[in-house]
Q: What sequence folds into this?
């Protein structure tokens, strides 16, 4: 007696789902995670990867099965079955993707929230923005027509969450992007570095501005990217976690040497960061 | 049409129009001639765009910039994007197949505005030549096909201005075509033919043309403002003069996201025509297919800011555009499930047209899955402007639309020329294209996730090997064009005679001679109320046609 097709379908479906989940959880396509929000991102990635794998393998399987099972064999004449539609089936495959998409949307909203994306711009960012503003106010207004009063600071994703929780003030750093380099100014020590040094485990707040064209600040290991826009300061907050040296990549076409516009971020242990900071500090009294 | 002249003689058309091969170089108003003009012209530009892609992949063989100067590389990538989008995909899926098929499908002798139609086509060659010649005269634009200011304001002005002029001409051509399609589908239907009896491609073209007419003028306006910024030093987008660069991005993507649907919706329509014929089954779920096209049109207009998640958009905007974008997956999913259901239980001829259509389904599903992922802000923030996006986009436009263009050429070639294409060569073409395409673009997902940004001439040496694999795939894609070209040219002279209706299809273009006469039918246009009336009802399986296993599996 042949096995009823419904049981075969059920078993295949279970294998597909379990296989997709396994692949999603065990195949790693991402670089190391080096910031507080990278593990959160990777969690979302694994969920999307699992769902995507299940869908893709399922649909490819259906196409291949149909092409083999329903192919016209030599000498066969005549048509297939005259099935014009099936309303319950249509409702089913409208509802299921809608639910999946809704689930994914809500889940990514949650992830987004945990990464600090939903903090109101002029509220959560207040802290760092104000600090920057006070630091900037001593004479150096950004050139262009943006005055201090009406300059809206646009926030990237990434959170100063740790700072609110632990009460640790984020390290303020001013990033200037230009063709074809990033410059990092440490206002607490009044010095400029070509390489970004940040202490592990401490929140960092980048206030970024471009001098000429749009650039983008991207650290793949932090899973963070923010465009650096001329005439429009942007803020990017993050908390590095894993000491090491990671690339900073410009991700927005900015001219002939766009591909060469790279720098690196060095995540130091807090002590070695302090040592590096003190070695470069130009202010007589360090307030760090 | 005042004189009731039924075209009885074999001498086509008015004597003012050239007749032989010369008519393909003339200002012909015959929709079939214009369709072929679009197709051949588009294909020539595809070869140019492909050569540019080859140059890009050659440069990326090594992690250093060694094949061409860096500014030339940026010109090449700008030209590649512009040529492929504005001179190949949009004109071919809209102009070529739309012009050839829509009058047949609505039962008309020609498009609603034949002269406007010819003008729309004849804007394309000069615009394309202008664009390409800018490389040789002054150096082409080098700010990408997106032309974001301030980069587009600061790079050499002459190339950028020529680029803007060219895109404006192509946009005008596209709008003329869109107006024409809307008028033809809505107003030129044969008496007795209802909207819900139209072949699906008409609906796809109606939806596409609505998008064209609503969004292309926005692009035109934006580019005109950009050209003012460049030549008259106005400050719309120039931050040095108080302009705002992000406004340009909003305006640009208000056109350029719908442009993706302008490129894929017609492809959806074409697949809906091809599959039922070769599966010998009705198109599954006609009504839901129509509604999903219209849902894609509406949603497609309100998702543009998902291209700008890293541009500093406010959180509420990111959330709205995430959800709107992700929901496009629902109507798109309906269409894919309907195609799968069309395959299911069919009597499928595994010819080149079906293979390319199924290749399209597989590639586009992958592109769609990465698309839903990219719609999620946190996901996008990492991979935006990286090779992940390059891979996603090419899975949509090449794996999706270009595969469908090839499927359509295999499907309609017998109608257009009266001769069949060589089937083994077609399958070889499919095999090479499918393997080459996936070899080229699948690894790029990994490149993007691991830190390779797009539009770079030099990159981190750790990515060299994967880039070389990708370039090998690109080479295979280039080689795959050869059997196709040979097939198309040789079959035109020596192919097997096709007859009027080699596929036993029911749609109206097959109910006339191959190639069709001027004004499409001798005598009255056929009234096709069931364009997908294939298949045998379940209760009357023809005993002579059905094989033994069919009877066994249906329980008789």
A:
């Amino acid at each position: 007696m042949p096995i009823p097709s419904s049981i075969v379908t059920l078993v295949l479906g279970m294998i597909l789902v379990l296989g997709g989940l396994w692949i999603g959880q065990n195949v790693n396509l991402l670089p190391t995670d080096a910031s507080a929000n990278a593990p959160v991102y990777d969690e979302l990635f694994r969920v999307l990867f699992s769902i995507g794998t299940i869908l893709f393998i399922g649909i490819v399987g259906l196409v291949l099965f149909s092409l083999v099972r329903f192919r016209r064999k030599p000498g066969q004449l005549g048509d297939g079955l005259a099935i014009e539609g099936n309303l319950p089936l249509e409702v089913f495959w409208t509802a299921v993707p809608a639910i999946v998409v809704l689930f994914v949307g809500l889940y990514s909203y949650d992830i987004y929230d945990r990464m600090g994306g939903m903090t109101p711009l002029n509220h959560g960012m207040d802290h760092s923005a104000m600090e920057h503003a006070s630091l900037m106010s001593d004479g150096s207004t950004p050139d262009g027509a943006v005055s201090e009063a009406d300059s809206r600071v646009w926030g990237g994703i990434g959170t100063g969450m740790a700072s609110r929780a632990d009460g640790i003030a984020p390290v303020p750093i001013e990033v200037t992007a230009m063709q074809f380099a990033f410059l990092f100014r440490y206002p607490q020590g009044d010095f400029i570095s070509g390489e970004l040094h940040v202490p592990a485990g401490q929140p960092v707040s980048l206030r970024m501005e471009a001098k000429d064209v749009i650039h983008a600040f991207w650290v793949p290991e932090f899973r963070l990217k923010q465009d650096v826009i001329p005439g429009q300061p942007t803020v990017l907050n993050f908390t590095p976690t894993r000491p090491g040296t990671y690339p900073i990549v410009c991700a927005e076409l900015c001219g002939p040497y766009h591909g060469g516009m790279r720098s690196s971020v060095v995540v130091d242990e807090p002590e070695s960061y302090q040592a590096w900071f003190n070695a470069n500090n130009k202010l007589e009294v360090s307030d760090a | 049409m005042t004189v009731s002249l039924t075209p009885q003689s074999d001498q086509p058309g008015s004597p003012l129009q050239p007749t032989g091969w010369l008519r393909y170089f003339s200002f012909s108003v015959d929709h079939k001639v214009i369709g072929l003009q679009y197709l051949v012209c588009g294909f020539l530009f595809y070869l140019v765009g492909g050569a540019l892609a080859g140059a890009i992949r050659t440069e990326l063989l090594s992690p250093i910039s060694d094949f061409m100067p860096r500014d030339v590389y940026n010109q090449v990538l700008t030209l590649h994007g512009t040529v492929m989008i504005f001179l190949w995909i949009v004109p071919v899926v809209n102009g070529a197949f739309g012009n050839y098929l829509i009058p047949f499908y609505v039962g008309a002798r020609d498009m609603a505005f034949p002269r406007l139609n010819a003008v729309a086509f004849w804007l394309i060659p000069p615009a394309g030549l202008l664009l390409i010649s800018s490389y040789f005269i002054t150096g082409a634009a080098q700010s990408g096909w997106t032309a974001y200011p301030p980069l587009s304001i600061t790079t050499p002005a002459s190339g950028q201005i020529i680029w803007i002029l060219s895109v404006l001409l192509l946009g005008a051509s596209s709008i003329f075509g869109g107006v024409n399609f809307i008028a033809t589908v809505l107003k030129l239907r044969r008496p007795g033919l209802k909207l819900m009896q139209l072949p699906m491609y008409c609906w796809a073209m109606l939806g596409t043309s609505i998008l064209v007419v609503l969004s292309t003028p926005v692009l035109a306006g934006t580019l005109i403002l950009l050209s003012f910024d460049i030549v008259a030093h106005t400050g719309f987008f120039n931050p040095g003069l108080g302009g705002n660069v992000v406004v340009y991005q909003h305006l640009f993507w208000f056109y350029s996201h719908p442009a993706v649907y302008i490129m894929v919706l017609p492809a959806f329509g074409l697949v809906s025509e091809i599959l039922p014929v070769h599966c010998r089954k009705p198109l599954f779920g006609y009504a839901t297919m129509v509604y999903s096209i219209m849902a894609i049109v509406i949603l497609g207009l309100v998702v543009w800011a998902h291209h700008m998640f890293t541009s500093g958009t406010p959180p509420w905007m990111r959330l709205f555009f995430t959800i709107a974008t992700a929901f496009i997956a629902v109507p798109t999913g309906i269409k894919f499930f309907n195609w799968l259901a069309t395959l299911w239980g069919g009597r499928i001829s595994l010819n080149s047209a079906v293979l390319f259509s199924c290749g399209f389904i597989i590639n586009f599903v992958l592109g769609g899955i990465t698309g839903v992922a990219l719609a999620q802000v946190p996901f996008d923030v990492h991979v935006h402007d990286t090779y992940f996006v390059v891979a996603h986009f090419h899975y949509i436009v090449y794996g999706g639309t270009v595969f469908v263009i090839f499927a359509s050429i295999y499907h309609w070639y017998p109608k257009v020329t009266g001769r069949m294409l060589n089937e083994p060569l077609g399958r070889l073409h499919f095999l090479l294209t499918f393997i080459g395409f996936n070899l080229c673009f699948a690894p790029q997902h990994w490149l993007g996730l691991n830190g390779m940004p797009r539009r770079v001439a030099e990159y981190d040496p750790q990515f060299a090997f994967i880039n070389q694999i990708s370039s090998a795939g690109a080479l295979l894609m280039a080689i795959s064009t050869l059997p196709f070209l040979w097939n198309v040219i040789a079959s035109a002279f020596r192919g097997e005679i096709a007859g009027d209706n080699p596929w036993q299809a029911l749609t109206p273009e097959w109910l006339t001679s191959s190639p069709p006469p001027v004004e499409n039918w001798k005598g009255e246009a056929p009234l096709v109320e069931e364009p997908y009336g294939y298949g045998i009802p379940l209760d009357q399986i023809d005993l002579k046609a059905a094989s033994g296993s069919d009877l066994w599996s249906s329980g008789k």
User: Anything to note?
Assistant: Chain B has a mean pLDDT of 90.
